[in-house]
Amino acid sequence: xxxQQSIDxxxxxxxxxxxxxxxxxYTEQISWILFLKYLNxxxxxxxxxxxxxxxxxxxxxxxxxxxxxWATPKTSSGELDLTRTLTGDDxxxxxxxxxxxYLQSFQAxxxxxxxxxxxxxxxxxxxxxxxxxxxxxxxxxDIIDSMNFQSEKELFELSQVYEGLLKSMGQExxxxxxFYTPRALIRTITEAVNPKVGQTVYDGAAGSxxxxxxxxxxxxxxxxxxxxxxxxxxQNTFFGREKGPLAYxxxxxxxxxxxxxxxxxxxxxxxxxDVRGIDEADRYDVILANPPFGGKExxxxxxxAYSYADDYLEEETEVIAYSGSSRSxxxxxxxxxxxVNTEFTIDLPYSISSDGQANTVEIIxxxxxxxxxxxAVPKLDxxxxxxxxxxxxxxxxLLPGDVNVYFEGTSVGTSYLNTETTEDTLDISMGRDxxxxxxxxxxxxxxxTTSFGANKKxxxxxxxxxxxxxxxxxxxxxxxxxxxxGKHAGMLALAKYFGDDVINYIDKDHPVQTTIIRYIEELIxxxxxxxxxxxxxxxxxxxxxxxxxxxxxxLGQGEKPxxxxxxxxxxxxxxxxxxxxxxxxxxxxxxxxxxxxKVGAESVRGVSLKTENDKSxxxxxxxxxxxxxxxxxxxxxxxxxxxxxxxxxLKELNRFRLQKLKNHNGLETGRIEAYIDx
Length: 678
Known about the structure:
Elements: H1 3-14, H2 23-52, H3 67-70, H4 88-104, H5 106-109, H6 116-125, H7 134-145, H8 152-172, H9 183-193, E1 201-203, H10 210-220, H11 227-235, E2 238-242, H12 245-257, E3 264-267, E4 286-287, H13 299-302, H14 306-316, E5 333-337, E6 342-346, E7 370-375, E8 383-391, E9 401-407, E10 410-417, E11 425-452, E12 455-468, H15 469-472, H16 485-498, H17 511-524, E13 531-533, E14 539-541, H18 545-557, H19 561-572, H20 575-578, H21 583-591, E15 595-600, E16 604-610, E17 616-622, H22 631-641, H23 647-652, E18 659-662, E19 668-672
Parallel strand pairs: 1-2, 1-4, 2-3
Antiparallel strand pairs: 5-6, 7-8, 8-11, 9-10, 11-12, 13-14, 15-16, 16-17, 18-19
Helix pairs in contact: 1-7, 2-7, 2-8, 2-12, 4-7, 6-12, 9-10, 18-19
């Protein structure tokens, strides 16, 4: 049986296993078993060479974990030792509980990234045994054990078969053109470039390492290679980076199976390096690559290439925002879409506790525009039900299923996300709103009965009233219902700090208020500002727009520690500024610590932006009639006109550049746009 026939047989066996589905799994599972067999033969050959040369060879794999001891233990006659051979659950328990942890442990102990031990640990750090049946695994081990990888011919045949596996994996897995580049194309490009012995070769999107392997074969075939040349080809010539875990594993194994004993392939994203700041030590003589054309990158990675590829990145990438300095796995997640699947790659390491409890990892975050509507069926229930209606949901990778719903930071229960709907809006139930009471009472005086033959039809009238519990209970609103409660909490805290009376803290002559006014006057360089009373009864200084703009400029300047602390707090926790769907919060998220905005009463808005060279810009905006509905549109237009927002920031805030007007039936009746008129 040829090697190809053996691989085909293994593939057929894997099709019957419950843990395996598709060519990607076939290749992955065949790969790690082939690799361990190859590694065993490689170490056996090195050990025999050492004996002939009268020296010692220290094998990488300890005796208990060598192929000949766990996979196919033999008797003295060379037959399979059935008394020591593991199968079924015993075999899977050993592989999953002992073998893989042992191989993965190399990384912690090995510091030399070029060593074989380190490569082994990285391979098994990103791959698992998916074969569910230990009996299936036993069949595969017996077949692969019959293969011998110690001759040049056998190694060449193995490399060709393995290339076939990678090709089928790429095509079936939806990676065609991104994961696997046809060998004929690779060979043509390599011959045209003609890398020479002594040069370094680099592939920044290595995938299965086809370019590096072809370059190795091309350079190895050069006549009159010295021993030093050969060692240099093995250790110091070929370099690559690959961000995909599975592609990285396949690439490293492909290099080793083609005879490159120490491949310098690293699991990282090439685009995380700013091309404008590359050191001489990180430069290479020859670059052979087919960069992926279907991938997407987050915004901080895009910045590394903007000056060279703005237009390309705009078409081929998806911006994934991170919010301030509070980062999670979602901030480091890359989404790759194909016609058949969506892959989420998390580039941020995280730890999962070994306490047996369920763990949740945040994969990705979306801020979606939401309209809230109340629905009620008074005949059946006296409560009102709040419904969140999400528009533009089709642009995101939302999956159908049960969801946990949080409203204003509080869990309100579970709901169901139905992404199979054909509607423009996606509805999510927010549950009962207990603050709303609906009452249905029959009107006694209204009753009409009509007869038609033997049929009778009765019409009755009902009075339906909708009330807020606050009103229903005869309660009146208090300052606690005011959205200025945070400001007042700060004033009360200052009063406590001063040791002053808290009862009259909003009096204009109270030490809290005089301190606030003096500080504002000091900041803007004005004295004796006149005082007015705010809507929440606190005294506020009368200020021009110029004064407000000055305050916001100082807020972003960073010269005063107290103002810098406020700026950092607001940009680090943007949702606390206005709420998850508020423009002020969305603005701080989009600018990622570079700026903020805050709306005030009577349609006033201040903007603070950090610029280059530790400078800042402050802007104040006022809508004269005090109506808020045009404020965010005007703000976006002004900032865009002044070129104060970056391309990615504008893209993320695009939904605020136009305000649609709808009637009570949800029908669009107009829109608000802003124009600059000198």
